[in-house]
Amino acid sequence: MPHATISLEEIRPTAERVARLAQAVLGGRYADVVWNSPRRLTRLVPFEGDNHARFPSRYAIRTGKPLWIEDWDNDPLVRKHGFVRGSTDVKCFVAAPIRWEGKVHGVLGGVDHVVRPRDESVLARLGDLADLLAEALGRAKLTAERERDAATLAQALEDTARSEQRLRLATRLARTRVWEIDHLRREANADAELWNGSPSYERAGRLVWDVIHPDDRPAVEAAWARHMAGEAAFQVEHRRFRPDGAYFWVESAAEAVRDESGQVCRVVGALRDIDEEKRKELELIDARNAAEAANEAKSVFLATVSHEIRTPLNGVLGMAQAMAADALPPVQRERLDVIRQSGESLVAIVNDVLDLSKIGAGKLEIEAIEFDVAALVASVRATFAAVAEAKGVGLSAHVEPGAEGVFRGDPARLRQILNNLASNALKFTAAGEVRLSVARTAEGVAFAVSDTGIGIPKAAQASLFQPFTQVDTSTTRQYGGTGLGLSICRHLAALMGGGVTLESDAGRGAVFTVTLPLPFVRAAALSPELVACAQVERPERPELRVLAAEDNRINQMVLRTLLAQLGVEPTIVENGRMALQAWQGGEWDLILMDAQMPVMDGVQATRAIRSEEARLGRPHTPILALTANALAHQAAEYRACGMDAVVSKPIVVEQLFAAIEALLCPDQPAETDVSAAG
Questions:
Q1: Half-sphere exposure of 399 (CA within 13 A, CB side)
Q2: CA 209, CA 618: separation in Å to the nearest integer?
Q3: pLDDT value at position 675?
Q4: CA within 13 Å, CB half, 426
């Protein structure tokens, strides 16, 4: 802090009194006080007379020693320093330095008209008077400093009051309360509202913890222990009591202040009321948990419904497929086709509902694997060839040279899109042609499905991709359908980074184009023609030892009937435990395993078999899951437990035989996708 300054006018009265005393001591003509100001010497005692004495004053200030000039005109000091000489007024000059805070600030001096020999006693008394003046100056300085300090303190108190006022306003607006426990002063300071009053130092230490909700206290104590150990700052969220006894949420921060020895001397802390924010956060969490629970319940419900629908459909479609292999009269075959087509339509509806549910929940995953574009398009055409032929509608497929080869993407989802578009095109085309074409564009690979059907009015196209939407109600009555297919197609294309566009008008057919950014991998190993002509062989294997675990009697009959086409007579058991026992008691080429069975389900049985194989060193037995649990995560669970492949119910005989061939002859390429649908 800078020293207080003293004005010359403040010390002038004191200087005049001291000068009068000095004149009395000297007995001379006059005495004065000369002050060494920063830029010049200043005479504090005015008088009318010679100014020659000012010059020895500067010398006395510079040397800091008492000065006695006996004979002004003949003194060697006067001659040496060139002081003004020849004055009849001044004959003797005496000066004593005024020392203050280790520095000479001036001199107390006097003059006389006569020559006077040096008198040490007079010099001593003059020095005492100079010291009295220095003490007076010190008291003046101290007074000035006190006044300055008082003014500074008053300003600081005013500033502090303003700061506290601003702090109180800020903490009130921020809903924050500050507290402190001082162990040295044994004091506790806090807002009265914070601790429900003003507790004593002895109670404050306990009250800090007592107001915390019992359920939150262990976490708060653990956080404080980490802070005391120097591991982390203390900042936690917890509940505490209000004065009315209710709990509310706060964000608490505190710091232990230590002295030089490392001992905690005080603790300062702050609490911020976050009750409103926390309750909103908890409400959001509850709402999210409720939504997740509802979504999980919906998923379980859909999976259950899917399973319960697929199980009887497996009996219907399985037997229809088995009967289709028999020689039937035309009328019976036509009726059988109606049964099969109706069952397949119901399966398609179930799959659409499941897909839409997964899309809405964000749970539908997209794969990135290599596949042959031309082979995939050829397989789509082959799927609908019989339908097109029955309607008398042409069905063609063309892949431009630039679009041939192996690309990376999700072939199952792409096939699902193309199947849906091709099915719609054939449904709404009574005559003419449906064409599948593929070309490379700047945006990727474009798959177009065009038809010469009834077309779509411009006004209806904007809403056509919305769920449960069709052109009009008459379309639903005439052609059927749920209106989910195009919505699912657009969502699937978007998930794969692409999109679906439509060009159409009423009565002029339609062109749906799916453009996907599929990375090119390499040229195709086989020509599309060879791939399209590949057929699933059904060689008779009477020696094949097949163990089947299936609890449903109808599904047992379907399985036995379908496997008979391969010349295989399976051994069928009713649950997983019986399957495990049968496996332990014999050797099997293949196990067909249902997932949901009483006593022991298929997953448990598979794990037990794989564990026994590892323990006993037995060779790996292929296990093929045949299940009505058709969701993707369920198929992943089955593979994770040790099953080698999954075929979903209702069983499609071509998929079943292809899966069996793939497991028994792993070196032969199999185009059929045996993964679970959806």
A1: 22
A2: 64
A3: 43
A4: 22
Q: What is the pLDDT of residue 473?
A: 43
In order, the DSSP letters of 45-110 are S--SS--TTHHHHHHHHHHTS-EEES-TTT-HHHHHHT-----SS-SEEEEEEEEETTEEEEEEEE
Ramachandran region, residue 642 (left: φ > 0; alpha: ψ -120 to 50; beta: rest): left
Kindly list the strands in the beta sheet with 499-504, ordered across the sheet, starting from the edge strand earlier in the chain. 394-399, 433-441, 444-451, 510-516, 499-504
pLDDT given for residue 535 in this prediction = 43
Residue 237 CB partners (closer than 8 Å, separation 6+): 249, 250, 251, 252, 274, 278
Which amino acid is it at 75?
Answer: D
Q: Which has the closest alpha carbon to 57: 47, 49, 48, 67?
A: 67
Distance from C-alpha of 63 to C-alpha of 104, rounded to nearest angstrom? 9
Which residue, among 628, 613, 625, has the nearest Cα to 580 in the 3D structure?
A: 613
Structural domains of the chain in order of their starting residue, each with its CATH number: 8-147 (3.30.450.40), 176-273 (3.30.450.20), 294-341+536-678 (3.40.50.2300), 365-532 (3.30.565.10)
Please state, in angstroms and rounded to a whole number, the distance separating the CA atoms of residues 450 and 443: 20
Of 427, 457, 445, 447, the closest CA to residue 512 belongs to 447
pLDDT less than 70: residues of the chain? 1-7, 38-39, 46-55, 82-88, 164-175, 190-199, 345, 356, 358, 360-363, 459, 461, 463, 465-483, 525-542, 630, 666-678
Distance of CA 19 to the CA centre of its chain: 84
Mean pLDDT of the chain: 80
- CA 68 – CA 655 distance, rounded (Å): 132
Predicted local confidence at residue 54, as pLDDT: 54
Secondary structure of 109-141 as H, E, C letters? EEEECCCCCCCHHHHHHHHHHHHHHHHHHHHHH
Integer-rounded Cα radius of gyration of the chain: 53
Specify the pLDDT at position 82: 67
pLDDT given at position 580: 95
The residue behind tokens 């075929």 is: 647
